[in-house]
Amino acid sequence: EADVRRLNGLLEEATQALRLLEAQSLERYVDLDRRLASGGAAEIDEGAESTVVAPSPAPSESPVVGRAVDAQEGEEAAYRAAYELVREREFDEAVTVFTAFLADFPFGRYAPNAHYWLGELYLVLDPPDPELARQNFKLLLDQYPADPKVPDALYKLGRVQLIKGNRQRSKEYLDEVIREYPSHAAAQLARQFLLENF
Q: Which pLDDT does position 9 carry in this prediction?
């Protein structure tokens, strides 16, 4: 009985440490995403539907162009509103707003980022939901294979698989990050994670 209590205590400590690490990781990614966003608008994924808007001589002559620009601005405003909730650590509300964002803009220019942040958020919720995190990271990989967040999503999938108890699949994802993106920061995180857990 004493051993069981001791093991339960160790498990609780490990769980708390994991949540702390996930929260710290989320903060780093929020900071990175903020810095990237301040450098300019995110690139439109080549696989996503997009509207090319040519300059027009007079806005009143082209109502279609005006609606396309309004839709783009609406998408960006909706994404930034959801992202701001992450920065404010309003994680439950951020999940709701990102989910609504994806319902409104399922193939928009910020859809890959929204899936990534949902994956991150599901890992830091109390209690975490590794399965929903996995689904969002996997969706990013499957639907946006050329997106810049793919290496980070692969790394996170490796972590999620270990949380779910699937060591072999975890190692496969981590090895894939290292093999496919050797100079990316996610590859370094994957190497460190492998050293600490395998």
A: 76
pLDDT at position 183 over 60: yes
Residue 37 CB coordination number (10 Å): 15
- Alpha-carbon distance of 176 to 198, in angstroms, equals 15
Answer yes or no: are the C-beta atoms of 119 and 133 closer than 8 Å.
yes
* Interacting residues of 138 by C-beta distance below 8 A, sequence separation 6+: 153, 157
Phi and psi based region of residue 165 (left: phi greater than 0; alpha: psi -120 to 50; beta: remaining):
left
Question: Helix (H, G, I), strand (E, B), or coil: what is residue 96?
Answer: helix
pLDDT at 47 over 80: no
pTM of the model: 0.69
Q: Sign of torsion, CA 167 99 152 127?
A: negative
- List the end-to-end C-alpha distance of the chain, in Å, as a whole number: 29
Q: Is 83 exposed, middle or buried (0-12, 13-18, 19+ CB in 10 A)?
A: buried
- Give the pLDDT confidence of 88-147 residue by residue, as tens digits: 999 999 999 999 999 999 999 999 999 999 999 999 999 999 999 999 999 999 999 999
